[in-house]
Amino acid sequence: MSAPPSTPRPAVEVRSLDWVPRAERHGRVWRQGPFWFLGNFQPFTVAIGLLGPAVGLSLGWTAVAGISGILFGTFFMAFHATQGARLGLPQMVQSRAQFGYSGVLVPLVGTLVTFVAFNVVDTVIISAGLNGIFGWNAVAVGITISVVATALAVFGHDWLHRAFTVLFWVSLPFWVVLTVGILAGTAGGSDAPDPGGVTLSGFVVMFTAAASYNITYAPYVSDYSRYLPEDTRPAAIVLSVFWGAAASPAWLIPLGAWLGSRLGATDGLVGLHDAGNAVVPALGSVLAVLAVLALVATMGLNAYSGMLSLVTAVDAVRRVPRTRAVRVGAILVLAVVWTVVGVGLSDASDALNTALLLMLYLLAPWTAVNLVDYFFVRRGHYAIPDLFTPDGVYGRWGGRGLTAYAVGLALEIPFIAVPGAFTGPVAAALGGVDVAVVVGLVVPGVLYLLLGRGLDRGAERAAVERGDVVLAQADRAA
């Protein structure tokens, strides 16, 4: 792999939807692992572990279902990382190849809901947790963390990577001490009065919630790998992202299940505080603060990718200038929305599982279409300049992608089972077992592969060749 050139970089990132010239590709593959590890190394992940005992699973079965779901979801997520380095584009701009310049608005609804919903839930988790631990005013906490997350997103890509790397190394020893204390029996707790067991419906709920956690990262991944050198080995990127994104939830979901089943915790942050302080005085307090900082950094990640999705959506209707002011304005709009909603809620625990499931239903068909297009239909070859114009080879509306996506969404409905909200007829016949994610991944992927046979490959090859010339000229000018 060639060494990235040494070029001065501004403190505040300039680029938004832009293609990243090769001269600016300064990323390092090894940073992808700690980056995504820290992205899941926080109270939201612990809260997912609380779901298992809540649906009647034992500690062991919660761990099995949670880890299985994480591995399943991360498999799809990690492969998106290759697209960023190969194309130098934000994830949802690349999706114009499948859905069209304007048609990409359809899956963008799901991605924007994901980014904002995560930050709303994160705001509630942090505000309620710090109020329960230290008695801090929940509204003031919510506003403060939103300001910090917004600032991090405004500074952009490089600062997000720096913050995640530092927090990874600072946090890791404290989590190790807590985990050793739990295994050694010094973290308190007692045997659960109802140790739980396993049911198929409970296992599937836990598996699906865990799978959705990393599948919902899929629209983010290229946003943070697009500054890698173009000739970075795809296997290296995939493995780095996979171990990082899978390892931390595989650790914290069982830990959350322990807090729920042995400490009776209903708030992951408070549970961490109590267990940590039982192991070593003040460990829980320090760990709570570090966990909050990690979650705030992740809120910055959500804001950054949310900005890219919002600008892409607006650009699909009316061309948006590629300026720093547009970046900052979009981040501020999203910050106001998640802050107002987040500080207005007092409890997000009941909505956590439902939110994760809804995100999964919206995003599974998109990730299937996107990956099939990249790896099997167009095989990584795109006319990048054409992605920035509705008159390009990809057109304004991508009928094949939209059809596959719509069919996938429609066929998911009978298989959906959201406790207390909706159960489709097939899910009801299966005793409440939700297999919608399988349908949402397999059907759109296969359908898009079949529809892709009708592409005008000659016209696309010519467009790709013209685009390569334009990019080479842009490289020389950079």
Query: What's the Cα radius of gyration?
Result: 22 Å
Helix content: 55-70%
CATH topology of the domain at 22-352: Hydantoin permease
Distance N to C terminus: 21 Å
Sequence of secondary-structure elements = HHHHHHHHHHHHHHHHHEEHHH
Architecture per CATH nomenclature, i.e. the level-2 architecture of the domain at 22-352: Orthogonal Bundle
Beta-strand content estimate? under 5%
Q: What does the overall shape look like? A: globular
Largest sheet: 2 strands, antiparallel
Number of distinct beta strands: 2
| Residue-averaged pLDDT | 90
CATH-defined superfamily of the domain at 22-352: Hydantoin permease
Q: Which structural category do the helix and sheet elements fall into?
A: mainly alpha
Spatially, the strands of the biggest sheet line up as 1-2
- Our count of helices gives 20
The top-level CATH class of the domain at 22-352 is: Mainly Alpha
Q: Could you name the ranges where pLDDT drops below 50 across 5 or more consecutive residues?
A: 1-6
